[in-house]
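Q: For a teaching handout, I want to show students what a protein-ligand complex looks like in token form. Below are the inputs, and the small molecule is uridine 5'-triphosphate. Please produce the holo structure.
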Amino acid sequence: DDARARLIRQLSAFDWGLVRELAQLVKEQTFGPEIAEFKPAPVVPLSRPAEEVAEARRTGEAAVREGTVAAFVVAGGQGSRLRFDGPKGCYRIGPVSGKSIFQIHAERVLAAGLRYGVEIPLYVMTSETNDAQVREFFEQNELFGLPAQDVAFCTQRMLPAFDAEGRLFLDAPDHVFVSPDGHGGSYRALQSSGALDDMARRGVRHISYFQVDNPMVPAIDPVFIGEHVRTGSEMSSKVLKKREPREKLGVFADIDGALRVVEYSEMDDALQRKTLPDGSLKYAFGSIAVHAIDIDFARRMASADLPFHVAHKAIPVRGDGGEAAEPDEPNGFKLERFVFDGIPHARNPLVMEVRREDEFAPVKNLDGDDSPATARAAMMAQHRRWLRQAGVDVPERGVVEISPLFALDAEELKGKVSRLPVSDNLYLE
Ligand code: UTP
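A: Here is the structure, written as tokens, with uridine 5'-triphosphate included.
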């Protein structure tokens, strides 16, 4: 009886209109032809005049000082490729300190608030799969020093997966398999949790959006916020030069005057390698999933009909004994919304180039590319660079880490280092 009640409770909470629509989508899906050649979107380049950057910085700093900017980290994903037992944000990435990714993000928010003399709120998106663990982790760590009124959580929606005939999967006798509805679910999660109202009440107008799995991302970037504000953009995005033509990053396209992200999986090999007459790569810039989003725009997107993307995945399914079994091969379809599908609806969407070595080191895989090892190496290389710029002679070997609470960037570090102890292991707190 208990099991039956649990199953009924779960099924009663489903939005069956949507479930039917999604089942239909799966049944009718066609993995269409890859996209034809398109125009790359204009990018605000790194190489712009210093005065323009300074102007953007002034605008951004003023917006932050006035309390109109909030930080928002999406952490509702399942982190299956990392194979870490726990939410990705709890992964201890600090090369010396062993700090978790969450702690590093939270400390950047705290440090930016101290720098600009304002309380910057941090919103964290979780999903049903990790919500309790994430909240507990923040509580155990005393919110990493952030005041309680400046940290809020919102939980994204879960959706069932389907087989090719549109049927649901039972992963236990009394439970239908569900998974988070994609980072595009963040608009709705912000709205339904009351986070957007909370932001409005505090006077926040711009959301600094980033993903939990990039421990190098500046939580608050005044130059980016400044470009976003001064161009009247409703949704802005950061890009960087791709490491190689086939790097798995989305590309910004200008399709009939509308800006949108073309995923790498939509581009065939030849298109990805396409060059311009001068020999340079045509689609040179990749998206790093960092955005500035206006709250009014987020509200609009929360009720917009953004598309669902279908992914063929291995779905755990109830074994003969009633236990969940993870198949080796994809056996079903998950549906997700993507945050960047908001961009074509935004007024004056802006794309800005940044340096990879300053802000992008994704933690996706257990080893190899985009793993904790490559992220730690990139973090240490950045901190060595900052120290050298500040005139400190740092050895290549050994471990280096600078806490966000000590310095958020090379400039701040310069002002702080006069006589530093130099050893093989350097940790600045
Ligand atoms: P990924 O698409 O890389 O997924 O998410 P993931 O869950 O981290 O890892 P895999 O694919 O299972 O290995 C990119 C970012 O978007 C967030 C993730 O938490 C991560 O920060 N995300 C993704 C959500 O918040 N919700 C989702 O439904 C999906």
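A: Two things your students might notice: The longest strand covers residues 285-294. The CA atoms of residues 299 and 368 lie 39 Å apart.
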